[in-house]
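Objective 1b: paired records.
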Amino acid sequence: MPENAIERCVVTLLIKFMIAETDRLLVEKFTLKDASFFKELVNTPHWLKYIGDRDIKTINDAKAYIKKTHLKSYETTGFGFYKLLLKEENNKPIGSCGLVKREGLDDVDIGFAFLPEYEGKGLAYESSSAILEIAKEEFGLERIVAITLPTNSNSIKLLEKLGFAYEKRVKPFEDGEELLLFAKTL
């Protein structure tokens, strides 16, 4: 195959999976090949404390979850949660940020999570800013919400820095746990 044909294939694949690029990050769609990283991410202390245990203990559990949630969301809404790759560390996957239309909420929700060693470095702000721009420009969304536990002060601070404002307390899930709902008009 001629070199330029190979380059065209690589560019086509990058376009298919890459969503955005920031100064430090590549934002890409999840694939089933990300199961090992996803399993690690969902079992970090902050994920378990603030998002909840998804009972993902094996690579096969992670693949099933990615297929049921991430891939299904890309197919049905065009958006979803994305994998974040740190450019300065050879595109190492370090977290997730994205959009989801949850059954219990009227608006599309933004969410984010990082491996512990990448928290507190401004990467959540950087990735969330890029996702909010995509929400407005590519998906035509006019309003985004975010939900968080009242005890998650770091998420609350980030949401406020991103321009979200507290609106009300909600119980969007079956467990009945009360969460804070923040909103932003794009």
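Objective 1b, second protein:
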Amino acid sequence: MANVFDYIAWRGDLPFTVSPVNEVDIVALSQIVLLDLSNAVPDEGSATIKECYKAFTKHGKRKKLGVIIPEDIKDLFSAMAKSERFSSVRLSRYVEDIDESTECQFSALVADAEDVDTRFVIFSGTDDTLVGWKENFNLIFKTPTRAQLESVKYLENAAKDFSGSIYVLGHSKGGHLALYSTAYCSDDVLKKIKQGYSLDGPGLPEGRESAEKLEKVKDKIISVLPQGSVIGRLFEHKENFKIIYSTEIGLFQHDAFSWEILGTKIVEAEDFSESGSGVDTGMRAILSALSEDDRRIFVEGLFKMFAAASCKTLTDVVYKMKDVVREYFKTSGETKKVLNRVFIKVLSDKYIRKLIFNTSMQVKKITAKPDKKAETKKSKNVKAKTSSTSSK
């Protein structure tokens, strides 16, 4: 089945003046903000995607994207730069703010399709840094986070000097920030927004205020959720949503490159999968059984374990899991009690347990280090065959 690369190969020769903005364009644009564009997008003014990609290949920081962010994003940026459709789109206002002291990971970008007077305000999902993941986990016991507040400011500034159509979008946490900023922006800005897209992004935390804000913007936002969505079904949703097919399983359906594309649309599924609904039910049951204070203790305790094991990124956690487990046994007091309660509930839920197992197996495949002995043996065999063929 086709994916976003196939779409660009098929539709990439048509400008937006010929073929209007569609949801697959939104998927493509949502991904490039995950790259470090600090030396690619100009600090002042704007530059085309073609120009920014050229600068990215020469001067851009080729940061490691980690265990869950696909390296395909770099190839997507290249394909967009070479296409008629995206190459002239102008990028500006890039910001990346990672601050451990305020537990904030915030990144955003503006893309302008000037020939159709359209602006895309794009929020980034979580990168590999544990700062970003800590901020995500903080949502279960406190709001607003600094990234949420920054998203509203960013949208307001991006919209105030623009009179055309505005799309607000993001993938994962970026989708959550697209939803949050749209819900909390001023009425004047809201009127300018043509459509918001949350691509497998969490909803808003429970509460009367969130419910009222969601009701206000439910027709402005579309949530795109894979049939086995886990991340995108967290918290509360009232907006319209579209269930789609993914070629992956479990948590890796979150990968936008696995979403099945047909023409200018993402292929729709009839309903969520049994496993996805099971995980959603289990997660809600676990959270509802915890007080706000217990949620805080759990999150703080979990990330203290990661810090004690010298983990700075999610990739570090994968490689240093033995060290993390060792730190768990050093934990004591109320923190240990809360951690135990959560872990027992997690492991006793068959759907969550299966999700963890499948995810760990997939991560091991992705992060598996090549067998040097096997590679050396293979190389010797190839050389031996070549030598034997040459001598005949």
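Residues 4 and 257 are 6 Å apart (CA to CA). The chain has 17 helices and ten strands.
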